[in-house]
Specification:
This protein has six helices and six strands. By secondary structure, the chain is an alpha/beta fold. It is globular and about 40 Å long. Bound molecules: ligand CA2.
């Protein structure tokens, strides 16, 4: 299995036990954010995106953020989310445009799913205009840079809090 990264929250075990978890899943190459191609993706890193997601998290919710370059690992995390998460924010990276497997896995998840893209995929190459994940997503945010992560988490917290 390839390497994957779990972005640890600083919440205490007690606080975590009382919170509802939102999974923030990141696909291939997103670990390179801020390190290459700043003209496309900006100069901030995936850690910065996770910080924005965490800052947007309302009381009673917490973020579990992970990144993998492996499609099967992402599928496993979506399955895990069925038991452990109330919502999913996902930037599937290039798998957005290719992966029926991610779509099938997300179709097994009952809660809100928000798809995030740092860049505006509709203003880029034609092969990026279509996303399998969008067939399941409740909302899609593209082109807001890293702010999309915060907006997605805020939306999920609001919608699950009755807002
Ligand atoms: O805009 C997005 O967030 C994307 O999901 C980013 C993916 C791309 O394949 C999607 O079409 C849109 C790429 C992930 C980032 O890849 C990098 C590669 C080199 C340097 C920095 C990032």
């Amino acid at each position: 299995m390839g390497q994957s990264k779990v972005y640890r929250a600083k919440a205490t075990n007690r606080a975590r036990a009382m919170s509802q978890t939102i999974y923030v899943l990141n696909g291939p190459n997103l670990n390179m954010l801020g390190l290459r191609q700043p003209e496309l993706y900006g100069s901030r890193t995936l850690d910065d995106a996770i910080d924005l997601a965490r800052a947007a998290c309302a009381d009673g919710f917490e973020i579990h953020a992970v990144q993998s370059n492996w499609e099967g690992q992402l599928v496993d995390w979506i399955h895990e989310a069925r038991e452990k998460a109330v919502g999913i924010v996902i930037n599937p990276g290039a798998y957005s445009h290719t992966s029926v497997a991610l779509l099938d896995a997300l179709n097994c998840f009952d809660g809100p799913v928000i798809e995030v893209h740092v860049s505006n995929i509709h203003a880029r190459e034609e092969f990026r205009h279509f996303s399998y994940v969008s067939q399941r997503a409740d909302g899609v945010i593209a082109g807001l840079g890293l702010e999309g992560y915060g907006a997605a988490v805020r939306y999920i917290c609001d919608s699950l809090s009755g807002g």
